Amino acid sequence: MAVVRIPTVLRPQAGGEARVEVAGATLGEVLRALVAVHPALEERLLDGDRVRGYVNVFVDDEDVRYLGGLDAPVGDAAEVTIMPAVAGGAR
Amino acid sequence: MRFADVAQVVGRTPLVALPRISPPGRTIHLKLEGQNPTGSVKDRVAASLVREAERAGHLRPGRRVLEPTSGNTGIALAAICRVRGYPLTCVMPENTSEERRRVLEMLGATIVLSPAIEGSNGSVRVAREMAAADPDLFMPFQYGNPANPLAHHETTAPEIIADLPDVTAFVGGLGTGGTVTGVGKRLKRWNPDVKVYAAEPEYGDLVYGLRNLDEGYVPEVLDLEVLDGRIKVDSLRALEMTRRLVGEEGIFAGVSTGASVAVAVRVADRLPEGSDIVALSPDGGWKYLSTGAYDPGDVAAIAERISGTLWA
Question: Fewer CB within 10 A of the terminal residue: chain A, N end or C end?
Fold first, then answer.
């Protein structure tokens, strides 16, 4: 099972949970399984067959854009992190 | 080396190998941007922002400069604006450290505070409102100004190529995106096989908790196409590597440097034997000393304690 980390802003749509365990061999399968458990997340996360803009998804710390998007492989003990896009820092 | 004034002293920074941290068969090199005149990579960006604005006629005697920044960009702009004769105003969140404000004020900058709860987005909002209301104010806005990546395309990358023509990969931090975009494009023009990776700071829940997904922001100067990977680094891993740099390599760098070196170590495995990886160190550690990042003790406990202010 992969663990999906839910950012603070999306926890109200995930029953208040910060971490949700779901099964899936690809990111697409994992996210489909996630929205099956918490349907309110769907429109916040997915835009048809794509991850919405301003949402960054990482599998084991790597941005899925460079791993094949929704086809990105997700290992058995993988951590999937959903994060809002934030610019800046010590600039 | 002699220079006409401080604005001329930008760049030509050392590229230093990290023999104790590099994994077997690969060499990680660190480009020490803390060696720039005000102590960060932003000296390159500030010089480029001002030069291009003067060239385009946006800046001329009598105009003033305004920028939302609480950090290195403000300090770099303050120094260059001082020698070029432009009054500078910096807009920053009200929770910015006292040291930052003191340095900026010392260099003659005027400080305007924006609400802490709005973070850097709030500073951008306030600065935009001020610029719209005053035609004498010029806002370079590094997040959207092509002069930012241009600085790296024209200076940082050519220096890397001159020092290390066989460079295999580059790792830079992700803030405005100017570094990875500018360096990455130039290195790939030099050799299309060069890989470019971004180290993305993973801010604490404290920061993300304040953000709404619909207000998310991707800087205009960031070109995601130039990247081969984007890897997030949390406070603990960045801090661990920052402390290893000082303890094992004798390099006292800021926390963003630790994040980029951590990514360099991670990607080293997927690069061929003999690879030379360049990571960019945006600044030294002095400005972060008061955060407690280098204090003795358990690094996990320190990371936990300061994760809210570490990247601010």
Answer: N
